[in-house]
Write a structure and sequence with these properties.
Layout (H helix, E strand, L loop, with lengths): L11 E6 L3 H13 L5 E5 L15 E2 L10 H19 L4 E3 L2 E5 L5 H14 L3 E4 L1 H7 L7 E5 L3 E3 L1 H14 L3 E4 L2 E7 L5 E6 L9 E8 L5 H7 L7 E12 L10 E4 L11 E4 L5 E4 L3 E2 L13 H9 L1 H22 L1 H8 L11 E13 L10 E3 L4 E6 L8 H18 L1
Parallel strand pairs: 1-2, 1-12, 2-9, 5-14, 12-20
Antiparallel strand pairs: 3-8, 4-8, 5-7, 6-7, 10-11, 11-12, 13-16, 13-17, 13-18, 14-15, 15-16, 19-20
Helix pairs in contact: 1-5, 1-10, 2-10, 8-9
Length: 416
């Protein structure tokens, strides 16, 4: 919905930068919490959910992996219960499939048992399985033991984001696509002035706002810096490369199959996921990307690469995880090596069963000491609210995260 009042005549109450699922959920939550609020969302792309939201595996996570008391656990548990209801209400494809977490080596069994305990602590229905019981769920999957997590599901998060944009628009929010933020200035009158350009680099009219919310994902640290805030972290991009099963081999996988996560490596590892449209994805690996939007292997962003190379945390990550990353890069360059890794879960898999699928890039927040920020990270004081780290399970948790960011924005608005 487009408001009839010129954007230059009155300031916005809240301006949200970024039309991924978190930015749109925030806008939706603002319109529900404060009917009549003036909200605009700015997005540099021609439509919503063009980056992390639109390039994930579509899994509704149960919350079993996340440390009790963490924001990830809190929001994933709430979000996994909510997102299915939202999809049903708005006609979005979704399914509660359950998933298997499978141990393929003796060393993984204690970690698998720890997940059972964590699941029970969270109140998640978990069933322990032996090899014969694994075959009841997934006949082609091999493992020493597994757990079945009943509350895991799948949906189309791009459609969720589109629905949020539509609902927010119906409540009076404007979503302006094709506008890239270039400058952010805090004025003497307390307002924030934002200037941007269109896709061709032409200047767009200035927007004034009382509160600015940064949901810029891959560029969240840069938006924080434009606002004059030190984010205390940097986004280091990691490309997640997927394959998908050719149609005649999709029957190898019935649902969702995950390995036992390695506590010394911050990524889940290659897993098998059936989506709501019938495809089966295998992946992702996690390799350093040479551009923040480096979805193709050969994509290089000189500005992004220079910023990553200058950041001391980058080299500390490399020293800490070089063995794991060497393996990830090898599997990126060799389809045969990637297949061999996936065969630990799915022995019948052959290289010819796999065709490349679109890659994603994870916006990983990293501290200067090389620590990868594991939890969601919010920051900023009025008139700014920054979402600095929102990796998986952010899509699952998008509705409660949106309410939390909206709460912070309304607090900042009252302080304005």
């Amino acid at each position: 919905m487009t408001r009839s009042t010129s954007p230059a005549s009155r300031p916005e109450d809240v301006l949200v930068v970024g039309a991924g699922i978190i930015g749109l959920s925030t806008a939706y939550a603002l319109t529900r919490a404060s009917p009549g609020i003036r909200v605009t969302v700015l997005e540099k792309e021609p439509g919503p959910a063009r980056h992390q939201t639109g390039r994930n595996s579509g899994v509704i996570h149960s919350g079993i992996y996340y440390r009790p008391g963490s924001l990830k656990a809190q929001y994933a548990l709430a979000g996994s219960a909510e997102i299915g209801k939202f999809c049903a209400e708005h006609g979005i494809p979704h399914e509660t499939t359950g998933k298997l977490i499978v141990a393929t080596a003796q060393a993984e069994l204690p970690r698998l048992h720890a997940l059972v305990q964590r699941g029970r602590e969270h109140g998640i229905p978990v069933r322990e399985l032996g090899p014969a019981q694994i075959a009841e769920y997934e006949p082609k999957v091999a493992g020493l033991a597994a757990i079945h997590v009943a509350t895991t599901g799948i949906c189309d998060f791009r459609e969720v984001a589109a629905a949020l944009a539509r609902l927010a628009g119906d409540a009076g929010c404007r979503v302006r696509y094709g506008e890239r933020v270039r400058t952010i200035e805090r004025r003497a009158d307390g307002l924030v002035a934002v200037r941007g350009t269109d896709a061709e680099g032409r200047p767009r009219p200035e927007i004034r706002t009382k509160v600015l919310v940064n949901c810029a994902g891959l560029h969240s640290d840069r938006i924080a810096e434009l606002a004059g805030d030190d984010p205390g972290m940097r986004i280091v991009p990691f490309r997640g490369e997927f394959y998908e099963l050719i149609p005649v081999r999709r029957g190898l996988v019935r649902g969702l199959v995950y390995p036992v996560p390695d506590p010394d490596f911050p990524f889940l590892g290659v897993h098998l996921t059936r989506d709501v449209h019938g495809g089966v994805h295998v992946g992702p690996n996690a390799v350093p990307a040479l551009a923040r939007e480096g979805y193709r292997r050969g994509a290089v962003g000189l500005r992004d690469l220079a910023a990553t190379a200058r950041f001391p945390g980058t080299w500390r990550i490399a020293r800490r995880h070089w063995r794991q990353e060497a393996g990830e890069i090898h599997r990126s360059l060799s389809k045969r090596a990637f297949t061999a890794d996936a065969r630990r879960l799915l022995p019948a898999l052959r290289p010819g069963d796999l065709v490349p699928a679109p890659a994603g890039v994870r916006a990983q927040a990293v501290l200067p000491d090389g620590t990868l920020v594991d939890d969601f990270l919010f920051a900023g004081t009025a008139p700014f609210v920054h979402v600095l780290n929102a990796p998986s399970p952010a899509a699952t948790a998008s509705l409660p995260i949106g309410r939390e960011v909206a709460r912070r924005a309304l607090e900042a608005l009252r302080a304005a």
